[in-house]
Amino acid sequence: EDTNASASPFSNPKYVCFLPVPRQHSNMHITDQLACIEDFYFLSGDESRALAMRRSLCVIAALPRRLTRIQDIQSLHNMGQSSRAIVKEILDKGRSTAATCMANDPKYTTMLQFRSIYGCGQRIAQALYERGYRTIAEICADRSWVADFPLSAERLEWGLTLHTELGSQVPRDEVKQLGDCVYKYANTILPGVMMTIGGGYRRGKPASKDCDFIFTHNDSDAIEFLLPQLLLQLQVAGLVVHANTQVGHNTPERIINYHYPIISDFTHRPLLDCTDRSFTIFKSPVSGLHRRIDIICVPRTQYAYTVLAWTGSKQFNRSLRLYAERELGWTLSSHGLLQIYSESGDSEQQQQQHQHHQQKSEQLGRTHNG
Ligand code: TTP
Ligand code: MN
Ligand code: MN
Ligand code: MN
């Protein structure tokens, strides 16, 4: 399929989810600069360029040894022309001109500051910049922005008040201890609950920007009522000081999602990733600092998929879902693995694609069973 593939000494999967991407590796000097360029594009609102950089970053991070010759990555998937040019410049001169420019760009560095505030994403950082703000102190002093973001204002206020505390990372030990603490409350409300700590913790990171706790229970009806009760108890105890909660609505899609994670005769796309969750600010009894804790509650039938989705990384999920969709014809979400057929009669092309997917699925089944 790929005639140049043999030219590279490195393994060359089409999807980055098949690459081992360690946190520390032999090409940090390259990936640090790619990460900077990715982030610059992301904050500029250029998501497709940002994604291309992230995929190339994964490829470089997965290389088993220090890269010295650009030819060795010439034919690799997910290394586009512009990424290769950047890597070549780093190999030749040690620095990418683009990365250096971007790292010193005044608009970028200002937006980077703003984005470090909890509740401030790319969109709000951009809007604040355009409104003329240049420092966090200015945002604190002049609150006229509140009218611009009425829905996010409360979260931003918390973010500003607790900027230093929420900006500091939560060490692994504390994540674990906070997990034990929240679990005790949940298990008192609903005995027999199960909890997995997901996010960066589950990927082995030594410290995380937040904690991700995923709860389930074998009783699917009971778990539906856990989240509101748990939040109330944690608030009463003075542990949760702020919560941004999303619970699903009882639409037909939700009910189907809730009870049937694997659907093979579905004719329209069910809602994806509408799991009950609450993004909280938690006063940690461990460190005395305010910490971000995400609490997610799902029925037992969806638990594995939700744990997978909330373990991340974001790029791993994205790539895995793309692989499922393109190669297998499955839709992977935090609810389950869905196979969706079109309602109208299949065109010849759709039928062929379906056969292709069936074969791939069978191959995969065999591999996994044997
Ligand atoms: P994060 O907690 O944002 O990031 P992280 O845990 O990878 O990093 P850190 O350790 O520094 O906190 O997200 C964790 C995973 O949860 C991420 O892969 C994406 C997933 N996720 C969802 O599926 N839905 C959501 O709404 C959010 C916010 C995250
Ligand atoms: Mn996390
Ligand atoms: Mn999180
Ligand atoms: Mn749902």
TrEMBL record:
> What molecular function does GO assign, one term?
DNA-directed DNA polymerase activity
List the residue ranges of the region (Disordered): 344-368
For whether the record's keyword set contains rRNA processing, the answer is no
Q: Which GO terms describe its biological process?
A: double-strand break repair via nonhomologous end joining
For this UniProt record, give its keywords in alphabetical order, as a comma-separated list.
DNA replication, DNA synthesis, Lyase, Nucleotidyltransferase, Transferase
The record's GO CC annotations read:
nucleus
Keyword check for Ribosomal protein? no
User: Its domain of life?
Assistant: Eukaryota
- What is the residue range of the signal peptide feature? none
Q: Report what the protein is called.
A: DNA polymerase lambda
Q: Which organism is it from?
A: Capsaspora owczarzaki (strain ATCC 30864)
